[in-house]
Structure formats: C-alpha cells, structure tokens
Amino acid sequence: MKAKPAAAPRPSRARARARARARSTSIAAFVVLAALVPTTASASGTQEVEAELPYVCALPSGQLPATVRVAAEFPARAEVGEAFTPSGVTTTVELPEEAVADLAGRGAAEVRAATRLDVGVAQNAATARASWRGGAEPVALPESGPLTLVTRGDVPSVAGRGDGDLTFSAGSLAIDLTLAAADGTATGTATADSGSGSDSGSGSLTVDCTLAEDAPGQGLLATVPVGTGTGAPSGSPSPTGPAGTSGAPDDGQPDGRGDRQPERQSERSPKVLENTPGTAPDRDDVPPCRYDEQHPPTDVSLNAYVTGYANVKKLKGAAYLPPSCVLIEQGVPVPGPPDPDYLIFDTVSYANFHYQERRQTPPFEATFLSFDFAPVKATMVLEQTDTMRIDSRMKMSMTDFSTTTDTYVRAPLVLHVLDLEVNGTPLDVGSECRTETSLVSEDPDPANFPGDHLVLYGRGELLIGQPATGYLLLSGGVLAGEATIPAFTGCGTDGEDLDRLLTASVSGPGNLIKQVQGQTCAIAAPVFPSPTNEGQCTEDLQPYEIPVAEH
Fold this sequence. Notes:
mainly beta, eleven-stranded antiparallel beta sheet, 42% strand
C-alpha cells in the first residue's frame, strides 16, 4: 500500500488568480508571437548580408560617384538542386548633391525610383545572371545634401547545380526615375547629354550606374555553400574568374564542349528561376467568385482573384493571404491633365471583397510549431470598412505610342483575429478582436484622400507589338505597399484584456504587403478558353485565372 503524500499548502485565492492570469498571459504571448511567424523561418539557418559598394552613375551633369548598399538574407547552406530565394532584399542608392541639382533643374520636386540590379551568380567555373528589381514610394528632393533612394522588391530563386560555393556579386545598376513637380504633375521633357542618362519621355529619366573598379570583393554580396563543400558563409572568397560556360541559366542542353563529352556537374551553370513560388490552388479549394441576385452585374462589372503575403515586421515573418474574390466596377476613362508629349486618361474604379455576402477575405489559418514542440494555430480575416477605390492614370507617348499606367488601390481594411489555439487548446479572444482602425499607409495624395486606409501601387507598361508587363486592372499583376498595423481592441473575454499584448507583439509601421491580382473576367463580354484564346472566364462567369502568391 502506497503512502499518501502530504497535501501541499493551498495558495490564497488572490495568489491563485495571479498565477492563472500569469499563465494565461504567457500562453497568450506565446500564441501571438508564434501565430504570425512562418515555419520556414530559421534564425540559425540564415545569414544577413549588408554590402556597401561604390558606383559611378551617368547623369546629365556627367559621371558622378554614388554609394549603393544592398541588404538581404541568404540561407546559411543549401543542398544541390535546392532552389532558394534571397529575402528582405533592399537596395539603397545615395546620389550626390550634384544629382539633386540635375533633377531640380528639370522642375522635379519629388521622385519615385525603381531599380534594376544585375547580379552575377557563380559556382565553380560556371555563371548565370539574375535581375534584382525594386520599387519605392515617392520621396521629396532634399534642399541640400545627397538624395537617398530605398527600393525593395522580390528577386528570382537560385539553385546550385553541384557541390561548391554559390557566390552572388553585384554588377551594373539602372535607376528608373519618375519625376514630379510640387503639384504632383509630371515634369517637362529635358534632353539628356549623350551618354549621361537616358530620357524616356516627359517626367522620367533612367540613370545607368557601373560598379567602381575599386569596389571591395569586386561587388561580392554573399556566399552560400552548396552540397558537401567545405566553404562557409562567413568567408569572402574572391569571385570566380571568367566562366567556361554560357552565362545563361542551364537548360539541360549540352554545355558547348561537344555533344559526346559527358557533362561535368561541377561546371553546370547555377539555375536562376523566375519567381514561380508555387502552383495555383485547385478551383475546389478557393471560394466562388461570381455575381448573384444580391450583387447583379452591370455592363462594366469585372471579377478577379487576388492573393499574396503581408509581412509583420516586428516578428520578421509573413502571413499568407489565400485567393480572395474581388468584384470590380470599372470606371470610364476621362481626359487627364494636358501634356504636349502624352495623351493622358484617368479612370476611377471601385471594388469590394466578396465572401459569403460579406466584404472580407476568406478566413486564413496559420499553423506553426513553435519552440519545436507546441503546435499553434491562428485564424484571421481582413474586413472592409468602406469601398475600395482604384485610381489609374494611363499615359500614351505621342512619339512611339507606348503606354504606362500607374494604379493606386486605396483599401480601408481592418485585421480581425477570429481564433487562437495552442497545443489544441483554444485561447478565447472574443468575437470583436481587431485593429482599432484600418491598416494605414502613407498616401501620396493625402489632401484628396484623407483618413486611414491601405495603399497599394502597381505600374503597367505596354510597348507596341509586345505583351503588357507589370500591373493593369484588366490583366492583373503585382500590387505592393507598406502599412502600419494599428493597435488592437476588443481582444479577450471574462475580464482579461489582451489588447496591449497583441499591440506590443504585432502593431507598428514598416509592414510590406505584396498582392497578386489575376486576369479579370469581363461579365458583359466574357472570353472563354479556346484553341486560339487564353481563358478569362469560366462557363459560369467566374475568373478563369487563379493567381499564385509571390514573396
């Protein structure tokens, strides 16, 4: 017969309540932190890189020195054939005061920058090239001193084709500048000197930059050991010499040494993959996207799916937003401000999420394994507080008839937390746990668009005889922006207030958002798939294309 252990002294009720509250708060903190950090993130499996490099840039006033800083995160190591994507890529360009004078001389008060950085990828004796693109919000020209431009964007994935260090080195850089006067209108045309910046039309300038000869490490950005190689990411080996193979990505064809000669894996070019992060979900796995009796279509009705990712800067993670249905009423183009070099048309359209008769996304779940043992699941939605507005300005060049279209989507969206669950045990956040206001972006035109709302931007380009690139409302594409996550309210039940905990863990500025919109379906003039046409609509007038999210 076992002896019965002595009973432990019973704590007071106040102490018991305090301990219960502490346990509940600890669990809540654990859930909040884990619920928004993706399982692919691994602090020990990444290396943070920040390289500062000297460049020489061609501007109308001549060749000017510039400083370029490239920051990104790379894996500490990769397996042979394993594709990975450098993340958090930021390109910071500091142009000297003389460049500011050049831009001001063209009537510019602010500029919007887009960068194209040529990156060489080498492994052993083989090389490939990748283009790292980034975009930025408009910035005002400084009254004195240098101009600093910070662009962010996604880059192609890369896979090593054999054992050995995979090196990334910066090369030439192109900076596309959109110039605007103090009133927000495009500046007039100015002629660039030959070889000192190319003028692509009114209000725009492309600045070409080359890596300075004395750049440290010849522009080396990062080294990622692949396979069984002994290289370490902390080392800075010299980049490989001239490649013995083509600089184009290996397509599996003979490598130029003769069809009968066996291909040596160590000399196969690293494979650069355009951003294709996955395949589209099956139609059975996405919500319906069609007009109905409560939402009858008009002659200008469109529908489309959108999907993407939203970063949470404090947690260094991202939340996946599944394909969501958007119903759009396309506006009628009207003439824009007069310009001697362009035909300009402005269009205002309106849109709403459509999920089970609500203006919201479908609930999206995130399940993670935190601290290597505790499964955590969070369920959230984005809810509209008002109609989304889509402003598009199309500019057609009078010389070559090329067009550019700048689109701003202004969306008042609150983040609503539905459920939190840790190790299978629900944590009750209540039914009204949400951000106090909409996600907030800095609006480029605050006088005309006051209030709290998210702003996403996309640019589309169309050259005669070529397919459109970038974002256009009808064909879709990538929209991006940056938002502040407001404080939370209404979180918790039974007298337990979780607002401050959620706010401290999640809320704050600098959260990047990237959305991909698919091809729209025009309800009044549907295009069905055929041997000669790509499908835009299904037979029941839903969007034919289900887009794939991109990091």
